[in-house]
Design goal:
3 domains, Rossmann fold, alpha/beta, 8 strands, two-stranded parallel sheet, Helicase, Ruva Protein, domain 3, about 60% helix, Zinc Finger, Delta Prime, domain 3
Length: about 325
């Protein structure tokens, strides 16, 4: 007899899009793209035609009472079929609380959609076992590099678009294996080719940034070394290539997110190859990514992300010239 197993969170989204909203969902894994997409799809499905936030409760795992979560799940919805209850980081709830949530999972109310997420959760826990047995345990696992092209093709089909193999290769080459970046690129491409359109190589070249990776890495390395002269030179090179400042900023943010994930994996004891996969970077970037991760400490990364967030807002709302805003950010990053 086959044992129940967890399925990938991507399959949960397909289930929701078919009109099936489960009463309990447990999503465990580190790929936030799949977690966020599934949570958003569930929230939207539950909220359609209802009273919105009046039928929602959101809890953060640390310090939350499982009793309060269950009380919220058992509260009748107001002018809607279901309530939406989300518990983030359920893995930090104490053992007694997890036991209570496991009991609820075995016998949930059909007037609520209870969603629980965690990056890690002991597979031997009753909560995981009950959720697996009930068919509501989903894993949000990072895609292997070999699966990214299949992901692009699947996402194009979801948007009812055709995409040529050469266009898939060009898109992945342009944005890497960063799933949010791929999703954003496909959204722009869908607007470019129109409903039911076909994405070819020319469309990708017209819509998707093809920033020279060596210049971006030179910029990231210069930030890590606080080498202002090299950083400004790399920025000037990218601007000279007519890359919009907002795109440059987005690419720098993407590379720094890779560095942060690489650093976290290395600290956790992962090998350089495994850490590179965890960072969502191609294998040939392993050495320079590891060097950047060792060069930038946690405080520097935190400060850099703060500067990038402020610059993003300034580029979208400031009256200052975009290239000046970007160069000001580079000066702040290398201070």
């Amino acid at each position: 007899m086959l044992q129940p197993r967890a399925v990938h969170a991507a399959e949960l989204v397909s289930t929701i899009e078919e009109g099936n909203v489960p009463s309990v969902v447990l999503i465990v894994g580190t790929e936030s793209f799949f977690v966020d997409r599934a949570v958003s799809a569930l929230r939207k499905a539950v909220g359609e035609g209802g009273m919105g936030s009046l039928n929602e409760d959101i809890f953060e795992g640390r310090g939350v009472s499982a009793v309060k979560v269950i009380e919220a799940a058992r509260t009748l919805p107001m002018l809607a079929a279901k309530r939406f209850v989300l518990v983030r980081d359920v893995g930090v709830i104490n053992a007694e609380g997890l036991e209570k949530l496991a009991e609820y999972t075995a016998s949930p109310y059909d007037t609520c959609c209870l969603v629980m997420t965690a990056e890690k959760l002991d597979g031997r826990s009753k909560l995981v076992k009950r959720a697996t047995a009930a068919g509501c345990f989903y894993e949000a696992l990072p895609l292997k590099e070999r699966d990214v092209r299949g992901f692009v093709a699947h996402e194009a089909r979801r948007r009812k678009l055709k995409i040529a193999p050469q266009a898939i290769d060009a898109l992945v080459d342009a944005v890497g294996v960063d799933l949010p970046a791929i999703d954003d690129a496909l959204e722009r491409l869908s607007l470019f080719v129109g409903p039911g359109g076909a994405i070819d190589l020319a469309a990708v070249e017209a819509c998707v940034t093809r920033v020279r990776s060596e210049s971006i890495w030179a910029l990231v390395d210069a930030v890590g070394l606080r080498d202002r002269k090299t950083a400004l030179r790399a920025t000037a090179s990218l601007l000279a290539d007519r890359e919009p400042p907002l795109r440059i900023l987005a690419m720098v943010a993407r590379q720094l997110r890779m560095v942060a994930r690489m650093k976290s994996a290395l600290i956790a004891g992962a090998s350089e190859a495994d850490a590179t996969r965890a960072a969502g970077a191609p294998p040939f970037k392993a050495r320079e990514l590891a060097q950047a991760a060792r060069r930038l400490d946690a405080a520097s990364l935190s400060r850099a992300f703060g500067v990038l967030a402020e610059t993003d807002l300034a580029l979208k709302g400031s009256k200052r010239p975009p290239d000046v805003v970007l160069e000001s950010a580079i000066l702040a990053l290398t201070r």
